[in-house]
């Protein structure tokens, strides 16, 4: 077991989370010692392995209509929850059309949900109005469901997925050690030589192991506990608003496709709404490579209780004389200690593609991620 995982288990080894049920206690207690699993001890999760095997064979049928759905809803009913078997049976994935805008000569796409992508587009418009040229509000050039279907045609079978799985396995098997870092959210960007590009974010929107309830080795998150206001605003059968802002950018050109990808960007961390536009302008306007952009200082989200809206920034990341010049102009700036900045800081991962098709990728230094070409 890694040092980070052992530390997390020790932190949540209590009656609220891992010891809330007998299932959690069984998973995370070493039967040889009677104590929570510790660093370097052999840690196995056979129930989780079996769940993954079942999903790999039966996919959504097992998850939404099979024994996992039955076991999960039964447990929730026992705990006075509200999800029923019928809810699981009726669930359908929802395709969201991406939003996009022309920003300083680039065609930028963001997630097409009712919050995050729209917010980013509006911010890019404001950035142009503040002095960046070529403002264009034409939103007619959108990606469509057809593009997703075309990609699915390439990977939608076990045979077609062999090559893709090999690539993913290599990407996930990078040499960079991850043993000291555990995060609840992760960002991934990818591109290939044929011009396909992807920017995605996975998050449980929850503390580790969430509710402390386990079904066949799977921990149920407790997103509703930290998004109560969103739950209250959402009607039955609706979906909670998603505010994340993964983005990709294309450069219009005279070619068969009419454009070529130049950037993919994803950011996690509570300051992402503030940080994403900063990365966009660093990568597209300033011509920074991903490493330069990820290592550049970024402003963080102001505190809700700060009446004067002083801009937080990580301590020692900007020269004092520069900070003083900003303060002299009337904009408050607050330097935040590293230990306090780590949580809210926007942790990004980005790739860019130059005019010669050369790809460059990098993650934020605090993410300890890795970039690899295949």
Automatic annotation (TrEMBL):
This is Glutathione hydrolase. The keyword Transferase applies. Keywords: Hydrolase, Transferase, Zymogen. InterPro entries: GGT_bact, GGT_ssub_C, Ntn_hydrolases_N. It comes from the Eukaryota. SUPFAM superfamilies: N-terminal nucleophile aminohydrolases (Ntn hydrolases). The keyword Hydrolase applies. PANTHER family: GLUTATHIONE HYDROLASE (PTHR43199), GLUTATHIONE HYDROLASE PROENZYME (PTHR43199:SF1). It comes from Desmophyllum pertusum. One of its GO terms (molecular function) is hydrolase activity.
């Amino acid at each position: 077991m890694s040092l980070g995982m052992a530390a997390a288990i020790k932190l949540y080894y209590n009656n609220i989370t891992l010891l809330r049920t007998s299932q959690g206690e069984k998973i995370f207690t070493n039967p040889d010692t009677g104590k929570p699993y510790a660093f370097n001890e052999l840690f196995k999760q056979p129930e989780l392995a079996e769940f993954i095997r079942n999903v790999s064979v039966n996919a959504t049928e097992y998850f939404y209509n099979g024994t996992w759905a039955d076991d999960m809803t039964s447990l929730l009913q026992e705990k006075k929850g509200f999800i029923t078997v019928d809810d699981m049976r009726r669930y359908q994935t929802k395709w969201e059309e991406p939003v996009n805008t022309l920003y300083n000569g680039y065609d930028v796409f963001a997630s097409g949900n009712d919050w995050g992508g729209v917010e980013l587009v509006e911010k890019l418009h404001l950035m142009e109005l503040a002095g960046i040229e070529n403002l264009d509000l034409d939103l007619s050039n959108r990606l469509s469901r057809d593009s997703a279907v075309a990609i699915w045609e390439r990977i939608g079978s076990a045979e077609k997925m062999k090559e893709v799985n090999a690539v993913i396995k290599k990407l996930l098997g990078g040499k960079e050690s991850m043993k000291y870092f555990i995060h609840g959210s992760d960002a991934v960007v990818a591109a290939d030589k044929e011009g396909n590009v992807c920017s995605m974010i996975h998050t449980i929107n929850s503390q580790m192991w969430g509710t402390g309830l386990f079904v066949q080795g799977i921990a149920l998150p407790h997103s509703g506990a930290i998004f109560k206001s969103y739950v209250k605003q959402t009607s039955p059968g609706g979906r909670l608003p998603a505010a994340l802002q993964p983005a990709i950018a294309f450069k219009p050109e005279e070619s068969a496709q009419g454009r070529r990808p130049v950037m993919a960007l994803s950011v996690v961390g509570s300051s992402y709404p503030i940080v994403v536009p900063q990365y966009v302008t660093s990568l597209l306007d300033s011509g920074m490579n991903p490493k330069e952009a990820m290592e550049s200082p970024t402003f963080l989200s102001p505190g809700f209780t700060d009446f004067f809206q002083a801009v937080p920034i990580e301590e020692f990341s900007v020269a004092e004389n520069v900070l003083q010049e900003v303060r002299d102009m009337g904009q408050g700036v607050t330097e935040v200690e590293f230990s306090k900045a780590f949580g809210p800081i926007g942790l990004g991962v980005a790739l860019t593609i130059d005019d010669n098709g050369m790809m460059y990728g990098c993650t934020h230094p605090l993410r300890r991620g890795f970039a690899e070409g295949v």
